[in-house]
Amino acid sequence: MSLDTQKSLAYQRSRKFKLGLIVNPFAGIGGALALKGSDTKEIREKALNAGAEKKAMDKTLLALKEIVAQKEQVIVYTASADMGEDIARQLGFEVNVVYQAPMQSEDSDTEQLARALMDAEVDLILFAGGDGTARNIFSVIDRHVPVVGVPAGCKIHSGVYAITPRAAGKVVQQVISGELVSLFDAEVKDIDEQAFRNGQVIARYFGEMQVPEELSYIQAVKMGGKESDELVLSDIAAYVIEMMEEQPERIFVMGSGSTVDFIMHAAGLENTLLGVDLVQNMEVIANDVSAQQLLALTENIPTSLVITLIGGQGHIFGRGNQQLSPEFIKRIGKENIHVVATKNKLTALGQKGLISDTGDEQVNASLSGPISVITGYKDKVLYFVRGEDI
Question: Would you tell me the crossing angle of helices 107-119 and 131-141 to the nearest 10 degrees?
Fold first, then answer.
């Protein structure tokens, strides 16, 4: 966005800051169970019946904790119960309930709450969910109210989300403090969930919402397309395949993404592009596993994880791979995590670092600092992970 089209976001100190809060309590519940989303009532019921946990409230809590020190300056406008009221009151915020939510909220409730927040003339909307939630909110507010998204869903392709829940809170904290921050137009995208479950990412552009700009905290829109440098990818694949052949008793957990997909195809193995597969002795022993299946299948067996990063963002955990639970990551340890990426992909990140957003602050902290990244055949570089400071 050019300088002459940027707008400043500043607020008068003579009144309390009016913060709108929207929580989609069902966001992300299909991720750990490999359901690739939670947009429909049927998928939500399937996830809940399978024991899925609602984590969106916990992630919202992390964001709101960043502004607790300023709670005397803030009134939170939100819906009843777990769509926002419970979390805000838990932290001691003054709360104004503007919408009574049902026991099981639907897309229409998100939209009605957004409408009520518009009517209340809130200064900023903090919301937790995925691309479906962003799309629902956009359908009501368009570009009329600035927003900051707390990433809590299975699908996070939109540019309206902060890179982690805590980062979302830090952006809001800057705004409440009256700092001059620019506004920029961020894309709202959503993908076809059925196509997603069939291994295709078909992202559709719906429009743009305004986001307070703090570039170290707001994510770049996910870069599409497969890695083009096939020679480098072939070298990476050869090195990983050699490691797998040398350790036939070890389970290699193959994460999602095009770089890992290239390795699997180079090894002649069937791969789930947008899921997690298990390989042992150069054979696929399980495809597209859930978080619980992964824990069960790797129990008491030496295990390594092969993952890549999301181009343009740098996430290694927390985007499309919720099957890789904090419990699993703690079990295998940082030393058994093999990050694979081309040097071009790392260079494109600048000095932003890799991002771990597992939903567990202790795990994020344990992963922070330098990590070895495989960038070619027996070619590695040290790159840093931002786990605890964002």
Answer: 40
Q: What does the domain layout of the chain look like in residue ranges?
A: 3-212, 230-386
pTM score, whole prediction = 0.69
Output the CA angle 231-251-241, nearest 5 degrees.
20
The answer to whether 268 touches 193, Cβ cutoff 8 Å, is no
pLDDT tens digits along 242-288: 999 999 999 999 998 889 999 999 999 999 988 999 999 999 999 99
CA distance 387 to 167: 11
Tell me if residue 252 falls in helix, strand or coil.
Answer: strand
Alpha-carbon distance of 217 to 349, in angstroms, equals 13
Q: Which fold has domain 3-212?
A: Rossmann fold (3.40.50)
Q: What is the pLDDT of residues 154-208, one digit of tens each?
A: 767 788 999 889 999 999 998 888 776 767 788 898 776 555 545 555 667 889 9
Distance, in Å, from the CA atom of 231 to the CA atom of 244, rounded to the nearest integer, reads 20
How far apart (Å, rounded) are the C-alpha atoms in residues 171 and 148?
8
CA-to-CA distance for 350 and 66, rounded, in angstroms? 26
